[in-house]
Q: What sequence folds into this?
């Protein structure tokens, strides 16, 4: 099964370069190519996850075997956590790619759109698979450069401005990460994550390690848009074409932000209470400020973008709780519970936020605006969009039996067990705030009365746009089965054990 | 130690430029300065006192050579830097065509 691992990078990269070459021949068919590739990769990742049984496989690129136990060459590591991330990335990618087919029709240069889209997925797949720090940086740059140009794809005033802000802040973040990488190489003499971890954990220079960690936290915090590093996210995520927003908010900030933080801070560095508290403080700020700022928005997609900041706070908070618990020497089971909640919420949020951004795209496609003050009474004319959006709203606000309820519940239980009662309280309150601002969306877009005569001719979106929305809405409900012990063990707990290395 | 410190100072100079300048092109130059300070830093981490270029010489295998890995990393990083800078400049040109200015204070349609 080793030789299947590089396929996750080869397939999207191949599609990205084939599409512009043969676009002119049969353009109708090749619009489905990115979606087909991602479906294949999602199925492959699922198959590998069930066949590995908690083990991890290492693929050595170019066949360079370690010399004297010192790894040379690049290693791709497929462990349960990477495979779980691969399933998320490719599944949301599949839905967004199908949604794009009618949506992107109005733009020129469709072939470049699909090409950049595949390139972005290739980069994200690489980031979650790689076991090499510099390789991670390269794949990260591949995916963010593709996303910079996708944000600017419509090349209107807003999109260009948003893309420029995103590029400048993203550029600073990348350079911070590169600096941390250079420091790591200087300190340990290796860029292999597993190898560096041994040297850092056995070494004495904790000061240097903390210095590197702070740079990494700033860099990946900028990529994950944690407050106070969030300035680019609302602009970029609301200006981009909707399927791209779904990818950016649904998976990009997770794959290159949250995943990288979890992987490097839990698997590479020795755990420290300071970093645990910094993670908790950043996440609480993100949760509270993101929620408050979202409540004041009147642009549908901007509201969703702020909501993403707030929800990512839950994921990082769970990681912070896990780290604090482990360092304090409390029961490792609590740390595992917190981490399981965090990963589960990350999984759920990518489905929910992907669905909500596709809803926003459908509303914009049908009516031509996304201003909450202009819209109203769309429930009768857009029944599918309205129903799926209601499902996503219940899910993100944490109403049982939707999946969002269970992931938030696990995080809150873990916080209580870790005796961090204030965090549990904040998580509950922010869940209510989430419900409040999504009820505002429901009321102003789908309920209420029709405010303008020009929405009289609005019709439901084409089937290629409604199909992904319906499937994702069903998944919002069905993913609750991950809470059942048998499913939880193969899917969630293996990933947690891979991350925390508890057996 | 001093050369490493100077690299860090150069990094901060670039960061200062990015954060304080109002002209889009100066922001891009600031990012480039940050990038170059990192290339320097990476190249220095691999340097060994008196080391030769890392090319195997069959006649003289005993001599010490500098670490080739950071050099490979710098080359890759330069290529990535080229891509980001080219994209930034392309966006800057499009912005100038839309707004007729390079001043970021005048390019502010997105707020809130």
A:
């Amino acid at each position: 099964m080793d030789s299947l691992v590089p396929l996750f990078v080869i397939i999207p990269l191949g599609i990205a370069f084939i599409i512009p070459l043969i676009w002119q021949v049969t353009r109708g068919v090749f619009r489905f190519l990115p979606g087909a590739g991602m479906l294949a990769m999602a199925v492959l990742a699922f198959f590998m996850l069930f066949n590995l049984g908690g083990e991890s496989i290492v693929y050595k690129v170019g066949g360079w075997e370690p010399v004297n136990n010192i790894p040379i060459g690049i290693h791709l590591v497929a462990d349960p956590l990477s495979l779980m991330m691969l399933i998320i990335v490719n599944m949301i990618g599949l839905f967004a790619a199908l949604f794009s087919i009618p949506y992107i029709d109005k733009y020129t240069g469709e072939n470049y759109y699909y090409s950049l889209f595949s390139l972005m997925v290739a980069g994200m797949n690489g980031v979650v698979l790689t076991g090499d720090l510099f390789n991670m940086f390269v794949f990260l740059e591949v995916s963010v450069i593709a996303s910079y140009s996708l944000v600017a794809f419509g090349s209107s005033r807003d999109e260009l401005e948003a893309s420029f802000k995103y590029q400048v802040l993203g550029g600073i973040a990348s350079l911070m990460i590169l600096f941390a990488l250079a420091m790591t190489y200087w300190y340990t003499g290796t860029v292999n994550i597993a190898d560096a971890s041994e040297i850092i954990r056995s070494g004495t220079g904790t000061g240097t390690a903390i210095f590197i960690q702070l740079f990494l936290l700033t860099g990946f915090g900028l990529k994950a848009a944690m407050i106070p590093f969030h300035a680019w996210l609302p602009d970029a995520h609301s200006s981009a074409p909707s399927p791209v927003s779904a990818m950016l908010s649904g998976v990009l900030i997770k794959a290159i932000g949250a995943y990288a933080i979890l992987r490097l801070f839990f698997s590479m560095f020795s755990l420290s209470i300071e970093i645990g508290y910094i993670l908790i403080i950043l996440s609480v700020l993100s949760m509270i400020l993101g929620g408050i700022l979202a409540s004041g928005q009147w642009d549908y997609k901007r509201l969703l973008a702020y909501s993403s900041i707030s929800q990512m706070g839950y994921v990082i908070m769970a990681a912070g709780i896990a780290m604090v618990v482990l360092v304090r020497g409390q029961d490792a089971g609590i740390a595992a519970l917190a981490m399981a909640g965090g990963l589960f919420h990350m999984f759920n949020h990518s489905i929910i936020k992907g669905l909500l951004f596709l809803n926003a795209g459908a509303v914009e496609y049908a009516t031509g605006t996304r201003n909450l003050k202009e819209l109203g009474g769309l429930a009768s004319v857009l029944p599918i969009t309205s129903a799926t959006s209601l499902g996503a709203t219940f899910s993100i606000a944490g109403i049982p039996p939707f999946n969002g309820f269970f992931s938030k519940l696990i995080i809150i239980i873990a916080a209580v067990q870790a005796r961090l009662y204030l965090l549990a309280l904040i998580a509950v309150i922010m869940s209510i705030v989430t419900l409040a601002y999504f009820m505002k969306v429901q009321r102003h877009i789908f309920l209420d009365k029709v405010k303008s005569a020009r929405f009289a001719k609005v019709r439901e979106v084409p089937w290629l746009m409604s199909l992904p929305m319906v499937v994702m809405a069903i998944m919002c409900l069905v993913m609750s089965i991950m809470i059942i012990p048998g499913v939880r063990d193969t899917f969630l707990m293996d990933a947690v054990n891979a991350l925390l290395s508890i057996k | 130690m001093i050369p490493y410190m100077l690299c860090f100072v150069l990094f901060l100079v670039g960061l200062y430029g990015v954060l304080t300048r109002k002209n889009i092109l100066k922001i891009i130059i600031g990012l480039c300065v940050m990038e170059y300070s990192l290339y320097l830093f990476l190249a220095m981490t691999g340097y060994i006192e008196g080391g030769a270029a890392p090319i195997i010489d069959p006649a003289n295998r005993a001599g010490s050579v500098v670490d080739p890995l950071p050099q490979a990393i710098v080359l890759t990083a330069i290529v990535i830097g080229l891509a980001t800078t080219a994209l930034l400049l392309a966006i800057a040109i499009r912005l100038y065509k839309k707004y007729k200015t390079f001043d970021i204070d005048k390019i502010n349609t997105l707020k809130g």
